[in-house]
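Q: I'm writing a short methods note and want an example of a predicted protein-small molecule complex. Could you take the sequence and the SMILES for adenosine-5'-diphosphate and return the bound structure as tokens? Please keep the output block clean; save any remarks for afterwards.
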Amino acid sequence: MDEFNYSALHLHTILAEGCFGSSVGLYQYYGQYVVIKSIPYDSPDYAYTAVLKEHMILSRMNHPRIIQYLGYFQAASSWNIVLEFAERGNLATFLERRSAERAFLNQHTVMAKIGDIADGLIYLHQRNVIHRDLKPANVLICVDNRLKLADFGISKIMHDDDFNRTIVGTPLYMAPEVASGKDYDYKSDVWALGIIFYELCMLEHPFVKSVGAGRKQKFRVPQIDWKRCGYSPTVQMLCDMTIQKDLTKRWKLEDILKEYHVLQLMNRPTS
Ligand SMILES: Nc1ncnc2c1ncn2[C@@H]1O[C@H](COP(=O)(O)OP(=O)(O)O)[C@@H](O)[C@H]1O
Ligand SMILES: [Mg+2]
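A: Understood, no commentary inside the block.
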């Protein structure tokens, strides 16, 4: 799709609208659906930079668990990225619906979803990219129910001696070191992965109930009610490895994905 003929695009639906006239739209293009993420030229610099950065990162990625980049084009008034269409929307909407119905997921489904996200994330980390805004709204669901990571606007390409103090990300999923403006690295995505894992199991955010509680309260790793949902008690391990304020206690993703019990939970070969 290198030579993108945007006059052949036909708008089907607007999927999401951002600030400053930016939008995500579903289009038909020669009989196939594509998604266009569009930003007007006259948007504020930071919004424009985010889309250009997303383009730079996505155009270098090629993995089944990362939303596929198909091309870009410059229209009269906007800059546009063309993406594959994830037919089943985002994981936030999925979790909201499941939560409203109190329809808990079985362990197999939880582990398949977390395995998909972890596979996308490790691919990014191995290419020195930190997502920095991992949250259910940025995880998309395809027609086969497999997940793909999306929204790389605030991702960061790390260089060996990089430390990053910019405060970015979404508060509910933001690792404590990011929220407090300290240095952070790949493990900040691991925190967000842990929060999503907890939400997949419990259908609620682990810290919703503690909002407003005393700030000085001692941090405790969120506990999964594994009995209620018929999960194995070892699912708690995943929270213990990921939702840790202390970075020395929080595991690296590559080590998590080698750990025997995690592999067993994911139904992956253990040797
Ligand atoms: N390729 C896609 N397929 C299906 N839905 C998408 C796609 N890209 C984005 N969306 C929808 O649009 C929403 C916003 O897209 P996103 O890339 O996260 O942009 P933003 O920077 O505005 O958050 C997503 O949460 C999802 O619901
Ligand atoms: Mg988003």
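A: Remarks, as requested: Residues 8-84 form a domain with the Phosphorylase Kinase; domain 1 fold (CATH 3.30.200.20). The beta strands are 9-17, 23-29, 32-40, 69-74, 78-83, 129-130, 139-141, 147-149, 156-157.
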